[in-house]
Design a protein that fits this description.
The structure holds two protein chains of two kinds.
Chain A: E1 2-6, E2 9-11, E3 19-20, E4 25-26, E5 33-35, H1 37-54, E6 57-63, H2 69-78, E7 82-87, H3 93-104, E8 111-115, H4 126-133, E9 138-148, E10 151-158, E11 161-168, E12 171-175, H5 187-195, E13 198-202, E14 210-216, E15 225-226, H6 233-241
Parallel strand pairs in A: 1-6, 1-8, 6-7, 7-13, 8-12, 9-12
Antiparallel strand pairs in A: 2-5, 3-4, 9-10, 10-11
Helix pairs in contact in A: 2-5, 3-4
Chain B: H1 4-9, E1 11-15, H2 25-41, E2 44-50, H3 55-59, E3 65-69, H4 77-90, E4 93-99, H5 102-115, E5 118-123, E6 133-137, E7 142-148, E8 153-157, E9 172-175, E10 186-191, E11 204-208, H6 218-227, E12 231-234, H7 236-240, E13 261-265, H8 271-277, E14 282-287, E15 300-303, H9 306-323
The chains are: A alpha/beta, B alpha/beta.
The structure holds flavin-adenine dinucleotide.
The site of flavin-adenine dinucleotide has 26 residues of chain B, from helix 7, helix 8, strand 14 and helix 9.
């Protein structure tokens, strides 16, 4: 089975969020970057489990500049066989998808796995866009994934219910919590990752369909109103009469 | 310029789920969004839907026209994409509006890619004067204004972002008769998760964390939620330890929600948790530790033991319900 896993390079979950250039760009100075948790914990690890059980290869693909390479090496340390980096600063979610699709279109992947969203852009766009650009079916927000007899079976949470869906390969899957357990790379993995192939390819020509014109930070919260524990019931009264939310 | 012709011919497509016992609030929000754009730009609204909603319900929606594809579900996003793309062409759509829910998240990007349209995923505002639309980024820790550079624009609207406005209901209803191809994705089984309000749509959410000590203590949390007509949620470790189902996990790596009221009980308020809930209009925090970081993001706070505070809240909520 040939598996492609999309790996995004994102600021650590505790990173300071600030902007530069008149609030038009994220200020990455001093920020630690990580593999997007959905890509790492669910998509990559499930891809590796399927490969270990059924044979095959797991390749990762990242759209980004050379700064993303430590993140890509982390994915290799966790166990991916090889990696591809499309050398461009993506213009928007569609650009990422277009770059991935341009690379994947004639490679015969059986499974293309993406995290359900990135923790920086939160668009949930790339997986379905890759599916559309490759004219493939898409299993969205899968919490479980299995492959047998040329078919993928997934579970998804839909409005609180659990739906079991099935689809012939090849397919694009967006991976959510429940699919796998996080793997911490060991020393051997980290050593091996240094010499695993990381192919850098030039970007396909694309046009931006959208741009972010400005970022803003939410206004600071007003001071919290404290209610003594003995009079806890007052909270309910205030939520009703003052905040008017119940 | 804006010739009269283009103004008259333009349309807004609103794709929405109309299944279930009644039309979901999020559908009405998305429809309001589409109507406002159509009113501003001088166009009509065509609501595109699928499934088995009764004819009179569809006819009562605030759209000029409703087109329903009766024989498909939402599992196969390729079929729904063909449906929306086909109608977008026929109706000369300039905008296609989705709800940013499970179905919209799968179909809106596909439609945008198919029609090479720019997309705003998870819009929280209508377009401003420059036509820019705001959305959450960095898991709600910041917002971004996005400009769509294409003549056709796709937007998926985050639930609970746009207040529903009533208009003059009454739409003509058409059944879609085009060819949507064969579904590759099929539903084998649906397991009902039981009663309860779906978390992403809930206006009030009662959430609890590791401070509740164990799953056996959730009875009080559920009782408070029931009295407040609220959905229940939890922090990540609580879901990881299987005290609560995974779909209740809110935060940066769980569900992101923006209810009117979020009540957090025995949750410390780690940055990854806050990321998923800080869009809530009002936050109330109950924690035994006065130094718990969550108090910094709260509107109301009680420093106290959840096991003593919860019964008082339930009692007060019962009293409030009895009075109204
Ligand atoms: C990459 C990454 C992603 C993450 N994503 C998420 C996410 O999406 N969502 C999420 O929730 N977390 C997430 N986390 C975990 C997060 O960092 C915290 O560990 C987690 O939110 C803590 O959960 P908690 O508040 O329930 O538990 P704790 O931090 O253990 O806090 C328990 C709280 O309960 C209080 N308490 C104890 N007893 C009582 C009592 N009797 N009455 C009242 N209060 C009491 C304590 O004072 C404490 O504040 C993530 C972490 C990482 C590294």
């Amino acid at each position: 089975m040939k598996i492609l896993v999309l790996i995004s390079h994102v600021p650590d979950t505790t990173a300071r969020i600030a902007f530069t250039n008149d609030n038009t760009a994220y200020d990455a100075s001093g920020v630690q970057f990580i593999v997007n948790p959905y890509d790492e914990w669910y998509a990559l690890v499930r891809g590796l489990e399927l490969k270990e059980a059924q044979g095959g290869t797991v390749t990762t693909i990242t759209v980004g500049g050379a700064v993303t390479e430590p993140t890509i090496r982390k994915a290799l340390a966790i166990g991916a066989d090889d990696a591809v980096r499309v050398d461009t600063e993506p213009k928007d979610g569609h650009d990422v998808a277009a770059q991935v699709a341009a690379f994947a279109k004639d490679k015969g992947y059986d499974l293309i796995l993406a995290g359900k969203e990135t923790i920086d852009h939160n668009g949930s766009q790339v997986g379905p866009m890759v599916a559309e650009l490759l004219d493939l079916p898409f299993l969205s927000l899968a919490t479980k994934l299995d492959v047998a007899d040329g078919k993928a079976t997934a579970e998804r949470d839909v409005r609180g219910d659990v739906e079991v869906v099935e689809c012939p390969l090849p397919v694009v899957v967006s991976c959510a919590k429940g699919m796998a357990e996080q793997r911490i790379p060991n020393m051997r993995g980290i050593m091996a990752a240094r010499t695993k192939p990381l192919q850098v390819i030039p970007a396909a020509a694309t046009e931006a369909l959208s741009t972010t014109v400005k970022f803003e930070l939410p206004p600071p919260k007003q001071a919290v109103k404290m209610i003594p524990a003995e009079e806890a019931g007052k909270l309910i009264e205030l939520l009703h009469s003052e905040a008017k939310v119940i | 310029m804006g010739s009269i012709n283009t103004r008259i011919n333009m349309s807004v497509i609103v794709f929405a789920d109309t299944r279930g016992e009644k039309v979901a609030k999020s559908t009405l929000e998305t429809l309001t969004y589409g109507r406002k754009i159509a009113a501003k730009e001088g166009g009509t609204v065509t609501l595109v839907t699928f499934g088995d909603a009764p004819q009179d319900r569809l006819g009562a929606l605030d759209a000029n026209k409703v087109v329903v594809a009766r024989n498909i579900g939402d599992a196969d996003s390729q079929q729904l994409t063909r449906l929306v793309a086909d109608l977008a062409g026929k109706e000369n759509a300039k905008w296609i509006i989705f709800t940013h829910d499970d179905t919209g998240k799968a179909v809106a990007p596909r439609v945008a890619a198919k029609l090479q349209a720019g997309e705003v995923a998870g819009a929280i505002t209508l377009p401003n004067e420059q036509g820019h639309i705001k959305r959450n980024v960095f898991s709600g820790k910041a917002q971004a204004w996005v400009e769509l550079k294409t003549p056709l624009k796709v937007v998926s609207v985050l639930p609970n972002s746009i207040p529903v406005e009533a208009a003059s209901p009454g739409a003509s209803v058409e059944e879609y008769s085009g060819d949507l191809g064969v579904a590759k994705v099929t539903v084998k089984e649906t397991r009902k998760a039981g009663e309860g309000i779906p978390l992403p749509e809930a206006e009030v959410v009662v959430s609890a964390g590791r401070g509740m000590k164990g799953p056996e203590n959730w009875g009080m949390v559920e009782e408070l939620a029931k009295e407040l007509h609220a959905a229940t949620a939890c922090s990540r470790p609580v879901a990881d330890m299987d005290w609560r189902p995974h779909h209740e996990h809110v935060g940066q790596t769980g569900v992101a929600i923006r209810p009117n009221l979020y009540i957090a009980i025995g949750i410390s308020g780690a940055i990854q948790h806050l990321a998923g809930v800080n869009g809530s209009k009002v936050i109330a925090v109950i924690n035994s530790d006065p130094e718990a970081p969550f108090f910094k993001s709260a509107d109301y706070g009680i420093v106290g033991d959840a096991f003593e505070v919860l019964p008082k809240l339930i009692e007060a909520a019962k009293k409030l319900n009895a009075e109204r």
